């Protein structure tokens, strides 16, 4: 996936370990925490897929406005997110993370957190995003394997 928004992520390498550093943003702090947790429980790829799926819901303005509406009780929001995550078979960590955002009244940052998480994920997995232009129509997502990632 590609994000049009710039990120505030920098990468620091130490003794064969990569540490992601977010700068001056609550969304960055939450994204870093989720990325570290996902990596520590060896679920980085799975949680990233969960985030990608949930991003589709969040981009729906009606759903997002419902989720961030302070009049809607937290338990109602949690119930809706639980239904979505159960139907999609998300990792429990993904659901618990969203519960934290609701409890801390930071669910309004969810879109920014997802963008920052994507950047952190790409750094942790050494993934680089590229833009491909072609005169021939291409599929929406093209993945180049390790042997195909060099231009001649």
Which helices and strands occur, and which strands form pairs?
Layout: E1 9-14, E2 17-22, H1 26-40, H2 44-58, H3 61-68, H4 74-88, H5 92-103, H6 110-124
Antiparallel strand pairs: 1-2
Helix pairs in contact: 1-2, 1-6, 2-6, 4-5
Can you describe what's shown?
- It is found in: Membrane.
- Its main location: membrane.
- Belongs to the ATPase delta chain family.
- The chain is mainly alpha-helical.
- It has a single domain (9-148), classed as Peroxidase, domain 1.
- It contains 6 helices and 2 strands, in the order ββαααααα.
- Helix 1 (26-40) runs antiparallel to helix 2 (44-58) and helix 2 runs antiparallel to helix 6.
- The longest helix is centred in the N-terminal third of the chain and has 15 residues, at 26-40.
- It is globular, with a radius of gyration of 17 Å.
- The protein starts with 8 loop residues before the first strand and ends in a 28-residue tail after the last helix.
- The relative contact order is 0.17.
Mean pLDDT: 81
How many extended strands? Answer: 2
Query: Major beta sheet, specifics?
Result: 2 strands, antiparallel
Instruction: State the helicity in percent bands.
Output: 40-55%
Q: What class do helices, strands and sheet pairing give?
A: mainly alpha
Number of discrete helical segments: 6
State Rg.
17 Å
Distance between the termini: 24 Å
Brief characterization of the structure:
This protein is mainly alpha-helical.
